[in-house]
Amino acid sequence: MLSRVRTAALWGLEALPVECEVDVGPGLPGFVLVGLPDATGREARDRVWPALRNAGFQLPDRKVTVNLAPAERRKEGASADLAVALGVLVATGQAPRERLEGAAALGELALDGRLRGVRGTLPLAETLWRAGVTSLLCASDCAPEAALVEGLVVHAVGTLLEAVEWLRGAELPCQAPAPPDPEPASSDDLRDVRGQPVARRALEIAAAGGHHLLYVGPPGAGKSMLAKRLPGILPPLEPDEALVVTRLHSAAGLRRPGRGLMTRRPYRAPHHTVSPAGLVGGGSPPRPGEISLAHHGVLFLDELSEFARGLLDALRQPLENGTVTIVRASGSSEFPARALLVTAMNPCRCGWLGHPRRGCKCTPTEIAQHHARVSGPMLDRIDLQVEVPALTAHELHAPAAGEWSAMVRVRVLAARAYQRERGCLNAALPPSRLPEHCALDSPGRRLVTDAVDRGGMSVRAVHRAMRVARTIADLAGEERVTVRALAEALQYRAYEARRFAAR
Asked: What is the CATH number that goes with domain 190-428?
């Protein structure tokens, strides 16, 4: 006898609808699972059979064949366990099939018949809803997460027996969606930062316009401290952004099943020994890298010069396009990668170049090699390049005089409100819209001409400086980009200009 139960599976981060076809027919007793499952999926029999027995059901004494269709697509995980068990019970006449019309099942079976939540519940539930599923039987652990999908009726079941009782006509309450994550309390506040007015100003501009940021300075100047305080001045995730980010982190297995939408923007800070697949993405099945896990959030690369140059250059295209495409012989996967990049590095290998009281011990060759670890094209994509000087004793002992993060966040939110009317952050303004929103007067055009002819700025760098100037104007509540805003924006390319002049 043949039965079909809808379910869903993951391959990498991609969720796909799956039809679990169960046939109980003549032949020697046995269990065959086909449809390109991974090792976890192939172990389904060793979970389903004890679960059926311990729940009080009769095991089939005939050959059982389970096909996870479509057969040509790989599947991973144990999300089909509940569907396989229900399919076997329906095919052997131990449960009715009427309620399976328009329904689906998600959950991993324990040996005693209990159900466990599975990774990627939110994207799996979304995929099933798009495939026409109207009701979903889901493990209790992850049912609140599945209920985030509007229009999908979710029934939480804790055991296999509860799922079968629902098939037999028992009524189960509809699961309410999980509440959004509470805004986490953070002890990292900009008020704690001593001095560094230029670095603080650059951090505010980066948060307001989504501009990439580089801090260059000696050890202990406060570069990492500033970067860790960036999430505290960023606005919370918009509803559509929260859905994308939550779906991404759920499928990657970074969230406990059953949680609601994320509200705080992700902050990722990989070590400089990270592999290319770990930073950009890759593997089989394809997995997202740190830049994708920081989507709509912050990717902080500390000790930038210690990252392999090829690794940094692999970020150039994702920073420009906002996506990462992983191509393999079996197909391609595209991951979102629109993250705010914040980096920090020492001015030389020993770290004391330019320090007023400690002499640099590096040779000119070593300094040149240190700077060469970050390529020109990579540096060209970083809008704000700020030198962070060492603190003086007076600045260290003086009482905190800077603003609280909450005060800076108010200005950031106001600036982003202007950008919302334009349809995108200033950092993402296409070149075709720059004349409309970043129009320059005669003094502004002379500044740009001087930056190109004398400073060697590329066209990309000029466009990025214009976008930064637009953000500065938004922070000031100005309708037009003034010469002052443009001059401040060009000042943040001074580090790149000095590197150009030194060659």
From this structure: 3.40.50.300
Choose among 468, 458, 460: nearest CA to 497: 458
The string of pLDDT tens digits covering residues 43-77 is 998 999 999 999 999 988 889 999 999 998 889 99
Delimiting residues of CATH 3.40.50.300 domain(s) in the chain:
190-428
Q: Where in the chain is the domain with CATH 3.30.230.10?
A: 2-167
- How far apart (Å, rounded) are the C-alpha atoms in residues 113 and 419? 53
Task: Specify the amino acid at residue 354.
Answer: G
Tens of pLDDT, residues 359-415: 888 888 888 888 888 888 888 889 999 999 888 777 777 776 678 999 999 999 999
Q: Is the peptide bond before 60 cis (omega within 30 degrees of 0)?
A: no
What is the value of pTM for the model shown? 0.88
Residues with Cβ within 8 Å of residue 274, at least 6 apart in sequence: 290, 307, 311
Q: How far apart are CA 84 and CA 400, in angstroms?
A: 62
Fold (topology level) of 2-167: Ribosomal Protein S5; domain 2 (3.30.230)
Name residue 54's amino acid: N
